[in-house]
Specification:
This protein is mainly alpha-helical. The protein contains nine helices and no strands. The protein has one domain: DhaL domain (Serine Threonine Protein Phosphatase 5, Tetratricopeptide repeat, Alpha Horseshoe). The longest helix has 19 residues. The N and C termini lie close together (8 Å). The protein binds adenosine-5'-diphosphate and magnesium ion (2 copies). The site of one magnesium ion has 7 residues, from loops. GO terms for molecular function: glycerone kinase activity. One of its GO terms (cellular component) is cytosol. InterPro entries: DhaK_L_YcgS (IPR012737), DhaL_dom (IPR004007), DhaL_dom_sf (IPR036117), Dihydroxyacetone_Kinase (IPR050861).
Length: 209
């Protein structure tokens, strides 16, 4: 594929909703170990609402689809993850603007803007055991893929693989941000739920491309 269109953006959000629903219990179990056990339910509420809205109205551009996702996540998800994912999608929407087709450069720009939004909002650094640990390697991999001349499908495949590796790599870390940080060193030995959900969502993006 040379570009991603609105149809892809809608298909991605629907696939992400399916993935979150499928992994709802698992995500909440991760959160039960180092947080308050609601991450799967929180995200499922938000992504189900996105999928429901997309069945009623079709956004006209990828940016409009991202904006719909952002608004829905902010109003339905709550907790830490709602505003963080909401900001990520809102920044991605702004980055792509009115474009009807996303080329590799615009795609990498959207992923970067999403990650930057999460960092600006949550102030987490790589290694703090948060969703930033999935997003940052994903953005780095996407940028490298673009520099190597990859098409959008390969850019997303690289981002998803890096996000999955990044999520796995949170296992031994001690949380320094969010609810899990209250546990201090007892947070080590568990995967960060937000990093795990970020990897699922990026995998859905790659699978639909
Ligand atoms: P809550 O902790 O309010 O119950 P969730 O369980 O839905 O919210 O989300 C928890 C996830 O949010 C964590 O696993 C982590 O990935 C992410 N998170 C929490 N705080 C931050 C932060 N400051 N920066 C980035 N991500 C964060
Ligand atoms: Mg929680
Ligand atoms: Mg909570």
């Amino acid at each position: 594929r040379t570009t991603l269109d609105t149809e892809w953006a809608i298909a991605w959000l629907q696939a992400a909703a399916d993935a979150v629903a499928e992994h709802r219990v698992e995500l909440s179990e991760l959160d039960r170990a180092i947080g308050d056990g609601d991450h799967g339910e929180n995200l499922d509420r938000g992504f189900s609402a996105i999928a429901a809205k997309l069945r009623e109205e079709a956004p006209a551009t990828p940016g409009a689809a991202f904006k719909l996702a952002a608004m829905t996540l902010m109003s339905k998800v709550g907790g830490a993850a709602g505003p963080l994912y909401g900001t990520a999608f809102l920044r991605a929407a702004t980055a792509v603007g009115e474009a009807t087709e996303l080329d590799p450069v615009l795609l990498a720009g959207a992923l970067t803007a999403a990650r930057d939004g999460v960092v600006l909002r949550g102030k987490a650094e790589p290694g703090d055991k948060t969703m930033v640990d999935a997003w940052t390697p994903a953005v780095d991999a996407a940028k490298s893929a673009v520099a190597a001349g990859a098409d959008v499908t390969s850019v997303l495949a690289a981002a998803a693989a890096a996000a999955e590796a990044g999520a796995t790599a949170t296992d031994p870390l001690t949380a320094r941000k969010g609810r899990a940080s209250y546990l201090g060193e007892r947070s080590a030995g568990h995967r960060d739920p937000g990093a795990a959900s970020s990897a699922l969502i990026l995998r859905a993006a790659a699978d639909t491309a």
